[in-house]
Write a structure and sequence with these properties.
Length: 446
Amino acid sequence: MTDHGYTQGRSHIWTSDTIRDIHAKAELGRYQIRGFSTFRQFPSWDDLVFLPAVMTRLPLEGYREHCETRTIIGGGKPDLVARPLELDIPIYLTSMSFGALGTNAKIALGKGFSAAGSASSTGEGGMLEEERAASTKLIYQMTPSRYGLDLEHLRKADAIEIALGQGAKPGTGGLLLGMKVSEKVAKMRTLPMGVDQRSCVRHPDFLGADDLQVKIIELREATDYQVPIFLKLAACRVEYDVKVACKTGCDAILLDGTEGATAAAPEYQLDNCGIPLIAAVRTARRAIEDLGMSGKIQLVVSGGIRNGVDVAKCLALGADAVAIGTSALIALGCNSPQYLDDYAALGTAPGACHHCHTGRCPVGITTQDPELEKRIDPEVGGERVAKFLRATMMECTGVAKSVGKRNVHNLEPEDLRATSLEASAFTGVPLAGVEWTVGPQYLGGR
Ligand SMILES: Cc1cc2nc3c(=O)[nH]c(=O)nc-3n(C[C@H](O)[C@H](O)[C@H](O)COP(=O)(O)O)c2cc1C
Ligand code: SF4
């Protein structure tokens, strides 16, 4: 007997994912936690295209002509910063804590970014000696938790990043589940082993921009006016947040879009909080310009940056540099097709793994288990990361040359067109074909 198709339809409200989520909550009695990044689909960098030179401009020769990539962050206030962060490329490694990552992964990333003439970053939880040794340039992150905070380590850093927010989970603190709190991690953070760590979300020693201004002066004094001080913000109320950040006297702002990854976050936070990076970059640049701070404060952006063309698009929209996390982990072997039984034990497979929170990373990156960690060889991993960065910069300079630019920092919004209404609205870049911009007037819309 036929049901005449009456049972064929599917609810768009009660999807199989929603039903699975409710069943899980009913079993666990709490929300779900996971790693990786949002599962929501936003307009992405793929919704923008470059306009290479044809008749009105000259392209540069791909192999024979040079395109400059040198990047200086924190060089806008020479009287306050003796050693700005000088990089060969406009990409550095974003903050990923020791604890979230294992020691070998930290060393490999440090080696890879150093080989590419760039910098890495400690993340929450203090400075790992091995990472300092492996990284030519290392940014020291200060989070509200103050885990592992050490004045000597501050003085060994090449830049300081004060974390005020993270794109994956704005308005919440770090999260490290007990299975990753090994003896070494617990010792560095002066906390008990094997117990979940939920970092506080607000810094204990400043309440707002005025106090932060004082904190920045204190940090400059503590580090003898040597290194630049960055603020890391999640992309939320971008225009006002960036303007207030500029007033604190920092040297650079790192703006992290909602696509930014994490080792562990509540799923409701990952998928519902913050705005996509593509909607934030131009607004942030505009906010810095409004205050007359261009050149004095650098804008670094992060969250979902996958390849050299994404990097070029960020620079064109107004970023001075980008920071990457997930793409570097993938270069190191995340989600690679090996150790299939271990992926299966987590209920996943290569290409779909987002299980960093479990501490059972099949490829040995986001784990503290000594046996799993052995799967990362720091030398081999470092070479993979360096090769990835080289290829990424070939893409970035390749597209810049085709547009006719001798310096990647000369890319500009005018070099882009949007292929979707949303991307045009988010970026103020004209819609391809019609030369009409959906975005607000201050972004060039009409
Ligand atoms: C494994 C892992 C650990 C992280 N740890 C930290 C951290 O300690 N502090 C922090 O501010 N952000 C942390 N983040 C977020 C990154 O710094 C960054 O905001 C994000 O990864 C950027 O997005 P992307 O991964 O798409 O490049 C972490 C991300 C990952 C994937
Ligand atoms: S392979 Fe490891 S690093 Fe990659 S998503 Fe899975 S658990 Fe995380």
